[in-house]
Prior knowledge:
The structure holds 2 protein chains of 2 kinds.
Chain A lengths: L2 H4 L3 H13 L1 H4 L3 H21 L10 H28 L13 H18 L2 H12 L4 H14 L18 H10 L18 H19 L22 H4 L1 H8 L6 H5 L2 H12 L2 H18 L9 H9 L13 H21 L8 H23 L2 H25 L4 H20 L8 H13 L3 H13 L11 E5 L5 E5 L1 H39 L5
Chain B lengths: L1 H16 L3 H14 L4 H20 L3 H20 L13 E12 L6 E11 L3 E6 L5 H9 L6 E6 L9 H4 L3 E4 L10 H11 L4 H14 L15 H13 L5 E5 L7 H15 L7 E6 L2 H7 L2 E6 L2 E6 L1 H7 L3 E7 L3 H7 L7 E4 L4 E5 L5 H10 L4 E6 L13
Parallel strand pairs in B: 3-7, 3-8, 5-6, 6-7
Antiparallel strand pairs in B: 1-2, 1-4, 8-9, 10-12, 10-13, 11-12
Amino acid sequence: MNFxxxxxxxxxRKLDTYLRIxxxxxxxxxxxxHIYIAVLLSVLFALLGLAYSISVNNVPSVNDQNVFFGxxxxxxxxxxxxxxxxxALFNTDKSAAYRFRYQEFFIFLIYxxxxxxxxxxxxxxxxxxxERISNLVSDNELQHDQNSLNEGLIFFPVSNAAFYSYxxxxxxxxHQFRKRNNYDDAYLxxxxxxxxxxxxxxxxxxxxxxxxxxIYFHKGVFANVRPKLYYRNTRMWSRDNFYNYNTYIRAELNxxxxxxxxxxxxxxxxxxxxxxxxxxxxxxxxxxxxxxxISTYSIIKGMELDQxxxxxxxxxxxxxxxxxxxxxxxxxxxxxxxxNITNIHRAKLKVDIGSWNADFLFGLFIFIFxxxxxxxxxxxxxxxxxxxxxxxxxxxxxxxxIIEIVFDFNGKFVSFAGIFLSALFxxxxxxxxxxxxxxxVLNQAxxxxxxxxxxxxxxxxxxxxxxxxxxxxxxFDKYLEPFKSYDGTISWSYNRExxxxxxxxWLSTFWxxxxxxxxxxNSYMKTLFLRFWSLPKVK
Amino acid sequence: xxxxxxxRLNEIQLYLKNEDINRAGQRLLDITYDFDFDRSLRxxxxxxxxxxxxxxxxxxxxxxxxxxxxxxxxxxxxxxxSKPVLSKELNERKxxxxxxxxxxxxxxxxxxxxxxxxxxxxxxxxIIGLVGENGNGKTTxxxxxxxxxxxxxxxxxxxxxxxxxxxxxxIKKKIAFIPQRLERWYGNANDKxxxxxxxxxxxxxxxxxxxxxxxxxxxxTNFRELTWTQLSSGYKLRFEIAMALVWEPSIxxxxxxxxxxxxxxxxxxxxxxxxxxxxxxxxxxxxLSSQQLHEVETVADQVIFLKNGNAxxxxxxxxxxxxxxxxxxxxxxxxTYSDLQKLLQSWDAIKIExxxxxxTISFSEKHTxxxxxxxxxxxxxxxxxxxxxxxxxxxxxxxxx
Lengths: 539, 401
């Protein structure tokens, strides 16, 4: 008995018998057994997801979760091999079986689904682990702890390295200062006649100049003590990562970080608290909150922070020989807390589940579609013919590329060869309907055609683009827009709408080819292969 | 038609009288399928056959046999009382394929082989035995008939239901070819038979009925749960035949089916083939190749003897006997080649050949086999083995032909 049937419940055995007797074409795909094994594996993996050791101070990182997910893929791949073996065992068409019209269409879809199965198996484990992580703390609690981080981290200068890029720019500080004190009109042109200005405006301008002088030339109120600024344009490791905890999360979420978004963020708050308001009560409150938060999330437990020392350092602008810098484990404690909170935050947002981007999914679909096509071809011909077809295709492709590179045809030869060879194989396949004896050349041409047929519309479009410039015909002139260069000359180029349209045409052609193959091409190839298979051989 | 039914019933009665439960069970099962009987009658026949087969594995005791005999007798009486009616008009057996002067040539640098033109007809219910030495074209002919090998010249016309067919996809749905080297299958034997029936359109209850019939009919009840690796070569072949017969092909082609069978199994298989060809419901046309000439000749309606790709004989055995006038004998005993030569030196057209197991002696029709035996006995030679093959195509193996 089949291994899967041995471990299956009675209902599945009954289903197996039912399908074998009544719908043998489905039975040969073994889809019922594969779904059953996939469910079993998923449950098993889900249990592993439950058994994974986690706690608030030891939350698996993204890498840890990826490794876990990757390990689960190994048995999933073994399962894939087992599936292919099982699907290859039985063949109805090579046995001159009775079949209904468009049977191959449904079989193709079943194969497509089957090859997706192993990729889905590790997901329950990943989902469960993610769910467990997200439930480690409540949403409100996490929000509170994140606020503690946001508001308190600025008081913890954990390393001297944080000051290497100190004062990368004062402009933001100045800008903020100006805005806060209604100095918006202080940027008046110095050559302007000041007689028309009000006294208050002139006063503000004087103050502004004094302020900028004090910062840039170390005069006046900032002669000895400079404001604590954290903004940097680069995202190198430094203290700005701390105050930028929110932006750190955003970066992980692939959200854009711009100065504009920063202005709207906690940045302004920090700027106020640290550089402008500098309220000791406020500071001690945030330090206390953060101390509590990191004692919960830190990988090192039981550490008592000297909150007074941290507050004193802040009040005295002591950034270099601070309590924090003299306490070596503090960075580990803080970073591990940040990591744990971040990982819980990510788990709540489910950013690591189904976070495959469109390109990756597209590539994955193409990969599985190719495997399905190859397997479908294998089911119709001898396996040696599949291998020979793949080898011939590889040789042809290499030759075409070599000629293209050597003679520098600027891509035109590739598109020409693509359409020429595809048309040749298509014509050869038509001849296959008129022969009375098996012809291995025509059969091989049909195998190669089956490889290429889904991409035939794409090949035609590439040919039209390369040789006839289909995307530069007069119809597209309405998308041309003037473009003024630095030297003042005007040139015309296609606008964004045009580029979107062209991309849409390429994608539509591609998907059209895929769908046409599934609905029409596949049936055509099946009819052809069945004919070849039934013909008497010469030897 | 009544005679045909009566003959069948008499045949079964005779088997039961001789306590041959195996044959009686097989033929009773056949009759329930050939004629339109009530479903329960078929089920009873299958059930009894199954009981018999299972009993074989368990080592049936005499009491069980007696009980089975009683049950079979009772079932036969029920069959007789129900007055069986033919399921369809039994017309003259139709021609399924006409093979007209087909030939084939293989050329290579080391060996050339020319299969010379041959013509024959495949009829419903006919068995054609294909005999000849190795490498003389038996498999080539079988492959051409089943559409696996293209002919160089000549043509094969397939009719099946009276219409001529040229579409190989359709033709191959009607022909079962069992090659000498069997292709491995997966799963257990019963499931595989069921699958083969299903893909040919036998689904639902009919599938189960067909599978049960063929499995129990061919005595495979006790082996149906076994897999390919668990079966002996002989049973692999028997299951292969069951897989082919379950979907009722019009033409059954077997390449050397007897090669892996013991003597008893060979006879059983040939008898089964004969019965299947004689079936009223599906009188299959069978063509088989074999080296077991005598066994094949006993069941075949037509024999083709191939030598170097040439059909040196193509017809029925009666024609062969009429055609061949000389005497050919096989024998063995306590005599040597020179003893025989001395004894027969004065006889006309004498030819003595020696093989590992026996001597093959041919002489003209002027002498008789009785004369020859008398000479041996007079010279006090004892005979261990003797067989008259004058009417058998086996004599065609001789270099004389």
